[in-house]
Amino acid sequence: MSSFFNTSIEFLKGVGPQKAALIGAELSLFTYGDLVQHYPFRYEDRTKFYKATEVTGDLPFVQIKGRITKLDTIGELRKKRLVARFSDDTGHIELVWFKGIPWVSKKLKLGVDYVVYGKPAAFGRKVNIAHPEIEVLTTQNDKAAFLQPVYHTSEKMKAKFLDSRAMSKLIRQVMVLAERHINETLPQKLTDQFSLIEKKFALWHIHFPSNTELLQKAQFRLKFEELFFIQLRLLKLKISRIDKFRGQIFNDSALLTSFYNDHLPFDLTNAQKRVIKEIYFDMKSGKQMNRLLQGDVGSGKTIVGFICMLLVVGSGSQASMMAPTEILAAQHYEGLKEYADKLGLGIAKLTGSTKTKERRIIHEGLRSGEIKILVGTHALIEDTVQFKNLGLAIIDEQHRFGVAQRAKLWNKNTSVYPHILVMTATPIPRTLAMTLYGDLDVSVIDEMPAGRKPIKTMHQYDAKRLEVFGFMKREIAKGRQIYVVYPLIEESSKLDLKDLMDGYESIARAFPENHISIVHGKMKPKDKDFEMQRFVNHETQLMVATTVIEVGVNVPNASVMVIENAERFGLAQLHQLRGRVGRGADQSYCVLMTDYKLSKEARTRIETMVKTNNGFEIADVDLKLRGPGDITGTQQSGVLDLLIADIAADSKILQIARNAASDLLDEDPELTNPENANIQRHIQSLRKTTVNWGRIS
Ligand code: ADP
Ligand code: MG
């Protein structure tokens, strides 16, 4: 951007150093450029004046012209209110104030022409507006042909008279000056193709729209542009990564064939086979693989990971699998060890609790190449862990790892980067995945292993606990096992532990004939494993736990999941937990226990769970309820600091923008074509001014 946009806002009329500092501190707005991009968050519709008789309680905000014909303070003490009768030539409505009565009543004059704006409400046959905006009628506001922008400000700013109106005036000042400095950022081909209005025009009308149609055009143009440049950047990253980074070539499939023919415990689903082919193709290509493997809980990602390891190990290299928790690492290790032993492959487990002596042996085995497969937690990315030749690094349940940790894995092989496979069951809506993982190749397992029965999910109020216990007993009598999960808000909270212990005691009382395992985050890994193992071995029938069992654990005979205080869990978490059952051939159940009192959102979550088993459907509801930042966690939220577009609401525009960016790069991969000069220039200016780009990769 030109230096004009870097001018400090203190040079604007009516600002000065003190107010500039305040605006900077409160809203992080420092320059003309910042103000231009401080978009309104909503608009007041001032395109029409209503007549008093037209105003009803179910209208949204309305604007009326008229006069105050009567003004009274009525009621006593805390019920005191100021009531004005506001009349035009058709009739009247009431205006009401509960606060600031002395000040308002002094300001209002009988017989003066006013413009009133507010949200009407009906009380019996009367209609009133509480705390309306009221201004003296002027030739300006009489025109009634505009949408009033509403800007974010803060209490501190309002105290210095920097309210939304004042911000609007400052922005108007800048926009008038900025006019000749605003460059078009898109090539004409795109603006023609998608009927986009000019950038300059769009910026003006996002702040000062003269009608709804223009506002919509301005919004579409700016959202498109924002999403287009993000996608362009991601797609460029992907192209340059594929071009730049060499990958080891793995193509010896003898080991794999032996496993396939002699040891594979079940037939792979078609989706699993397809995904394995995609990964093989990458690993034979000579380029480094960076692939995301998405598949709903229980879709069988682990075996896919293992089979890919075999190609690597068979070609004389090493492979690792990193999991987010000790329990999960242990479980992967147990599972993979069984296969590895049959094939005579060296395999080891490395976690935070591995003893120093054993650790030393493992380090040695990795350096010598004797250990072919390493399974572990993030302990395996520590600097002391060195491989002879790491060829494939698998990360399970990616959402728990940061981008930085992904990068550390890259450096585990000093001569050639290892191939990277990220496996996630977090159902991420496609649009969000496109942005978060837009630089990765994506494979999807969209099919469950044969013979699985869909899990039946039920909602029960706490009062029905005895019936639920009865149901659990009948399932145990059939030989099934049961999880009972308690919420955990903070890993350290004593209260949660007490909830869990109370729960444990009530279960122990209700099921005197059964054995019960208990697992929670405060336990030593060794004790946790012991308890887990008892459940796996079917020595216990019930597993009382906190959400530590959320990811990955696999006990096919466990067919009932009871979730206590289900209203306290998020949708993604409920879905993950439910995924712990339904892994065997028996009918599985998930029981969501809640209090009678439920917030609207909690009710939506529970109803969604009861209605569907489809992770993507659940993810879409989740995205609508929570917004994208929460879903991805703080680690990646920087990517989604969007100025105007909304990943959830604007998924259509996102898709259009992604396609447009992809087509453009097909035609002009280096963006050197003169007709794309606008794009080049804008990317350069973004590099200088935006911090977000770096965080995307
Ligand atoms: P996730 O995708 O959630 O990680 P897992 O890899 O843990 O799922 O697999 C869930 C269960 O399904 C495991 O018991 C696994 O052995 C089994 N499984 C995986 N693929 C198949 C298949 N094609 N047929 C039958 N069972 C399978
Ligand atoms: Mg898994």
TrEMBL record:
UniProt cross-references to CDD domains, sorted A to Z: DEXHc_RecG, RecG_wedge_OBF
Catalytic activity reported: Couples ATP hydrolysis with the unwinding of duplex DNA by translocating in the 3'-5' direction; ATP + H2O = ADP + phosphate + H(+)
SMART domains, per database record: DEXDc, HELICc
Keywords: ATP-binding, DNA damage, DNA recombination, DNA repair, DNA-binding, Helicase, Hydrolase, Isomerase, Nucleotide-binding
Domain of life: Bacteria
ATP-binding keyword on record: yes
Pfam families from the UniProt entry: DEAD, Helicase_C, RecG_dom3_C, RecG_wedge
PROSITE patterns: HELICASE_ATP_BIND_1, HELICASE_CTER
GO terms, biological process: DNA recombination; DNA repair
Enzyme class: isomerase
Known role: Plays a critical role in recombination and DNA repair. Helps process Holliday junction intermediates to mature products by catalyzing branch migration. Has replication fork regression activity, unwinds stalled or blocked replication forks to make a HJ that can be resolved. Has a DNA unwinding activity characteristic of a DNA helicase with 3'-5' polarity.
Similarity-based family: Belongs to the helicase family. RecG subfamily.
Stated name of the protein: ATP-dependent DNA helicase RecG
Native organism taxonomy: Bacteria, Pseudomonadati, Bacteroidota, Cytophagia, Cytophagales
